Amino acid sequence: MDRKRTNPTAEDNSLNALWRSSPLASGNAAYLEDLYEQFLSDSASVAPAWRRYFEALPRVDGVAQDIPHSGIRDEFRRLAHQTHPAAPQRPSQAAEPIESAHKQVKVLQLINAYRFRAHQVARLDPLGLREAPNIPELDLRHYGLSEADLETVFETGSLVGPRQASLREILAQLRATYAGTIGAEYMHITDTSEKRWVQSSLESVHGVPDYPPEVRRNLLGRLTAAEGLEHYLHTKYVGQKRFSLEGAESLIPMLDELIQRAGGLGTKEIIIGMAHRGRLNVLVNILGKSPADLFREFEGKVQHSGTGDVKYHQGFSSDVGTAGGPVHVALAFNPSHLEIVGPVVQGSVRARQERRRDRLGNRVLPVVIHGDAAFAGQGVVMETFNMSQSRGYSTKGTVHIVLNNQIGFTTSHQQDARSTLYCSDIAKVVGAPIFHVNGDDPEAVLFVTQIAFDYRMTFHKDVVIDLYCYRRHGHSEADEPTVTQPLMYQRIRALPTTLALYAQRLAQARIATADEAAEVGREYQQQLESGVCAAPRILPREKAEYAYSTDWSPYVAGRCEPGTDTRVTLDTVRGLTEQMLHIPEGLELHPQVTKIYEARRKMAAGALPVDWGFAENLAYATLLKDGYGVRLSGQDSGRGTFFHRHAVVYNQKDGTGYLPLRNLYEGQPRFIVINSPLSEEAVLAFEYGYATADPKTLTIWEAQFGDFANNAQVVIDQFISSGEQKWNRLCGLTLFLPHGYEGQGPEHSSGRLERYLQLCAQQNMFVCVPTTPAQFFHLLRRQMLWSCRKPLVVMTPKSLLRHRLSVSSLEDLTLGRFRPVLFETEALEDAAVKEIVLCSGKVYYDLVERRQKLGRRDVAILRIEQLYPFPEEELKQAFQRYPAARRFIWCQEETRNKGAWYQTQHRLWRSIPKGATLEYTGRPTSAAPAVGSYPLHISQLNELLDQALGPVASDSAQGEDGKR
Q1: Is residue 164 part of a domain?
Q2: How far apart are CA 302 and CA 293, in angstroms?
Q3: What integer is the mean pLDDT of 283-293?
Q4: pLDDT (0 to 100) of residue 542
Q5: 16 has pLDDT over 80
Q6: Ramachandran sector of residue 209 (left: φ over 0; alpha: ψ -120 to 50; beta: rest)
């Protein structure tokens, strides 16, 4: 504010007195600022007088501006005149101070407008194709200011720096900070402390720091490596796909800075997820993969233990030396389904953080690198952001890097690829700050990297770096991009590389001559030609920190032995039951839950048969006692969708939850049960990542209904079923898919058993359909106790949870084991059996009841409880019990083109005796999994039972079937 003022008038004195007595006075600044933030969140939550005051504050594009406290006094002066229209008018000769006060408020508005809007006019695009919009709020004239005011001194408010500065100086600082090669979006953040932290970090520098020569020379070296590898590959392996980093070379110094800065603050592990663009460059120049190994992959000279995968999907890990000690850096394996690696990384990080007891997330850092089109276009990104601060899935903040190529394959970035201004707008749903930066300004990239990392470590929340760049060779090296983007690629081909631009900049600053820059390039080329590690600070394995690493060696060559001993003693059952059913004093259970817990106590005493809910909880308890953790997640996993689990019980007095399985004994392994967000794809990917990082925890994902796994099919296809063959990645993840035809319609019946069987090969996973609580108990225990780690897909029950026949005895738990084939428990004369019905799942009980009604003693019913790996030998042994059987029937409740029939019949043919026949009975072929009419469902059930065993003698019997 201009200090050449006349003496205060009587009105000035009156207003000053009013100011001093007002809550707007400086002593109440913190209170006022908090109140204003409260108003922005919920205007109705503040008093009417304050609401009127805040509503009168200026707005930019309909958004209330954050008026700094130091400008409020002048704003108060203006409002005081509005509030008291009868106030005496100032003499004309004293008009200048009033005019200055008015301009002071306008200057504060201008400062705030730059914070809100200047990112839109920042110089972000290296190609210069991004047209800056006309934003009136950034123009002096919008505020009644002009060049005549440039030398006037104003209060700067909350702008970091001197409390007073000329308008020219203020504008220079704002343009350097917000309209240079960095465009920051942070005014959408609702937390005031976070917003002010970002503001201070940016405004205290006035653009980009003046980095010392050694930092600039290091940047030159990292850019040289990034460009040098691509040129080498482009020359040596002409036309081969590699998804070049060219156009985004600044990614390499960015990752290098992240690792070094993180290590300096004590981070011990960094897990990186990225798609294929630039992956080879990251592998060689960041993780230290041997160039010689990469060249052998280009030449097809690498032998894989399984099917293998293309080189730009491969993962890698190494240990990097930093000022704070070694940092283990791992690049996750990734299929071509770009963004799906994001939640996989989150799961892996969460497992590592829990292993290190890293509650703040300082020891393990997730970094996810996105493409701009995929970031905006793929829903799994939104799902993952939604999980980022939730209790069961938070990793305390992720550094997101968007390689903004400004194009998706051949889709133009804004006209067709999205409906938002920026590809990064999706991150605003969690209030993440977004730093857009021009990839051709490596020093701005370095600065943004430092701010983004520091924000994550300070607030433990997600942050986004939007690296504006381009693709020099189109989608891939075999592409011809000028066909679809002629103007863009004319500009690209005329544009010097990032390295060339930066080398010229250093030469002009007399930091590195052109000859020195060329020598750095020659030295890097020599490293490549020698095939030795080209990344700096890569540590030998013997110097790495392995105190918190996971030992997978017991499972690498481990065998999945079907006869694994999963028994427990009766004393163990009863002791654990007592602990499981202990409810702390003062916790009032729901009456229905009380009945369930009382029944479980009787089951442990042998007074009631064991049901599914008790057997499942007991399986978890015994595994915890054996030293294994348990993690179960799904959309209703605590209680159980079908009101059967009750692993979490709720106090009816105050709604607090209690987990008995967390309180079995002191120092027990972790038991985690999570009611997940309404997401299948991201949650299942998260659990896959978790399971690949922790073989000592039974990790389970439960679908609310088995059909809902459709939404996560990419995780099942690209990771769970094939990860071991493609990448040699072991994983013991278990899937619970509620399955059973009870007349609930097409979307609540089928777990799509056929899809999993179709994916089965090379002993890649287990697919089981248990039909008794004891089978389920032993199956869960086997998953952890045997010396292998394979995915397990379980078609879990719905109606069987309370079926009167689907129960077990205590002896089944203490003396039994999981049996891939279940024999008849009913006494039959084996020699009299002429027919054998084979089945899986709930239909077994329908067959048993039909056979009982018919009084047939010549039919045996066998259950195949493990459909893959198929128990061929066990089945042959079972058939030997019935030497007279020559008619074999496969019966399923699913439609003919679904269920197990098509994927299993060839194995059944190999198993049955020579000369025997094999028939199919079940629902007819259908496009939909099940019918939507309950009467039609019952009609189809009776028809398939008729085919398998014969019709009942009277209509009344069929009617009873319909009521059952």
Answers
A1: no
A2: 8
A3: 92
A4: 63
A5: no
A6: beta
DSSP symbols for 850-872: HHHHHT--SEEEEEE-EEES--H
Which of 537, 557, 582 marks a domain boundary? 537
Is residue 559 situated within a structural domain? Answer: no
727 and 828 both lie in a single domain: no
Asked if the peptide bond before residue 212 counts as cis, ω within 30 degrees of 0, the response is: no
Phi, psi of 917 (to 5 degrees): -110, 155
Amino acid identity, residue 146?
S
Q: Are 567 and 816 in contact (CB under 8 A)?
A: yes
What's the domain range around 373?
221-420+429-537
387: pLDDT confidence band, cut at 50, 70 and 90? very high
Same domain, 622 and 660: yes
Of residues 493 and 6, the one with the higher pLDDT is 493
Q: Are residues 73 and 143 in the same domain?
A: yes
Residue 75 has pLDDT above 50, yes or no: no
Choose among 386, 404, 402: nearest CA to 452.
Answer: 402
SS3 at position 885: coil
Same domain, 647 and 598: yes
Which of 785, 815, 845 terminates a domain? The answer is 815
513: DSSP letter? -
pLDDT digits (tens, 9 = 90+) for 480-516: 787 887 888 889 899 999 999 999 999 999 999 999 9
C-alpha 853/C-alpha 2 separation (Å) is: 102
Q: How far apart are CA 661 and CA 312, in angstroms?
A: 43
Q: Quickly list DSSP for 277-337.
A: TTHHHHHHHTS---HHHHHHHHTT-PPPSSS---GGG--EEEEE--TTS-EEEEEPP--SS
Alpha-carbon distance 465 to 403, whole Å? 9
CA distance 770 to 821: 10
Residues 805 and 842 in one domain: no
CA within 13 Å, CB half, 610:
27
DSSP run (H or E) holding 783: helix 773-785
| Number of other residues whose CB lies within 10 A of the CB of residue 717 | 14
Cβ atoms within 10 Å of 379's Cβ, excluding its own: 13
Total tally of structural domains belonging to the chain: 4
Closest-CA residue to 458 (of 390, 367, 386, 360): 360
Tens digits of residue pLDDT in 197-243: 999 999 999 899 999 999 999 999 999 999 999 999 888 887 777 78
**CATH code (residue 750):** 3.40.50.12470
Q: Which residues contact 525 (CB under 8 A, 6 or more apart)?
A: 228, 232
Q: Give me the pLDDT at residue 9, please.
A: 53
CA gap 164, 449 in Å, rounded: 31
Q: What whole-number distance in Å separates Cα of residue 350 and Cα of residue 347?
A: 5
CATH number at residue 863: 3.40.50.11610
> 846-855: which pairs have CB atoms within 8 A and are 24 or more residues apart?
846/893, 846/941, 846/945, 847/891, 847/945, 847/948, 847/949, 848/805, 849/964, 850/945, 850/948, 850/949, 850/952, 850/961, 851/949, 853/952, 853/957, 854/949, 854/950, 854/952
Per the CB < 8 A criterion, the answer to whether 271 and 332 are in contact is yes
What is the mean predicted confidence (pLDDT) over 844-871?
95
Q: How many CB atoms lie within 10 A of CB 282?
A: 23
Residues 6+ apart with CB under 8 A from 409: 373, 475
Q: Examine the domain organization and report whether 585 and 471 are in the same domain.
A: no
- Whether residues 680 and 825 share a domain: the answer is no
DSSP-derived secondary structure for 517-562: HHHHHHHHHHHHHHT---STTBPPGGGS--TT----HHHHS----T
Nearest-5° Cα angle at 402, 400 to 403: 145
Banded pLDDT at 58 (limits 50, 70, 90): low
Are 299 and 384 within one domain?
yes
Distance separating alpha carbons of residues 341 and 366, to the nearest angstrom? 11
Residues 6+ apart with CB under 8 A from 856: 949, 950
Distance CA 199, CA 190 (A): 13
